[in-house]
Amino acid sequence: MRRTSRHPVTGANSLWHVYKTVPFWKVVKNFLVIQVSRYIPFLGMKNWLYCTFLRMKIGDKTSFALMVMLDVMFPEKISVGKNTVIGYNTTILAHEYLIKEYRLGEVNIGDEVMIGANTTILPGIKIGDGAIISAGTLVHKDVPAGAFVGGNPMRIIYTKEKLAERWKDDPIYGRQANEQP
Q: Per the UniProt record, which residue ranges are transmembrane (predicted)?
């Protein structure tokens, strides 16, 4: 179950009420910072912009690839751990506007997570440390630490234990998979 707060609206759909829920100039500033950052090739500068102007929490050595789209209205609800890779054209949402309500939820991405290209992460999601998310996945529920998930709808492909078994003889990943957290 995603952790979101629900906010009902009356009359027109909730997106029609957008500037009652978030200030117009905040959205303009966020949009400009996100659009510039989507194309900046300097990862450190990109993280600095996100932390400084969007109030996101981002760990050391985390990499946001080209064209990553962050939530324009509530980016401060997104946190990413250290040494994580967010793949090309991934979308991370902290809000969703529906017909009769809008929902807000924090997105917490752990340390050393690998998120494949073209993934969409919905609001209210927690992705555990060391998780791997296949390209093109719709992350609609929490991802356990160390799991390998993929698809639409998302499903667990390998658990942390099965992945460690698969990688036990690998010279690079075998060593990491067998280390204790």
A: none
